[in-house]
Design goal:
Elements: H1 14-30, E1 33-36, E2 41-44, E3 51-59, E4 62-70
Antiparallel strand pairs: 1-2, 3-4
C-alpha cells in the first residue's frame, strides 16, 4: 500500500481557523474527513479509538499549538486513560 500525504499551510485569521476546525470536527462526527488543496487531496475515515495529543508552547512573542490524532483503520477497544478539561 502506498502512503497518501496531504500538507497545507497558510496565514489565516482566528475566524477562518475556527471554521476550518469546525469542519474537521464535523468530519470526525461523520467518520469522514476530506482535505484538499490546489496541489493534493486525501480522505480519512477516523473510527474507533484514536491516539490524541496536544502540545502548546509560549515563547517570547510567539505561541504554538499542535493537535495530533493517529489511529489504524480498525483498532482494538481500550479503556480511556487520560482526559482533558476545557
Amino acid at each position: 500500500m502506498h502512503d497518501d500525504k496531504f500538507s497545507f499551510e497558510s496565514i489565516q485569521d482566528s475566524t477562518s481557523i475556527v471554521e476550518l476546525l469546525e469542519s474537521i470536527t464535523q468530519g470526525f462526527r461523520d467518520g469522514s474527513i476530506a482535505l484538499s488543496s490546489e496541489k493534493n487531496s486525501i480522505n480519512l475515515n477516523p473510527d474507533g479509538l484514536l491516539n490524541f495529543s496536544i502540545k502548546a508552547r509560549q515563547k517570547a512573542e510567539e505561541s504554538k499549538l499542535e493537535l495530533r490524532t493517529a489511529g489504524k483503520t480498525t483498532m482494538a477497544h481500550h479503556t480511556k486513560k487520560n482526559s482533558i478539561t476545557h
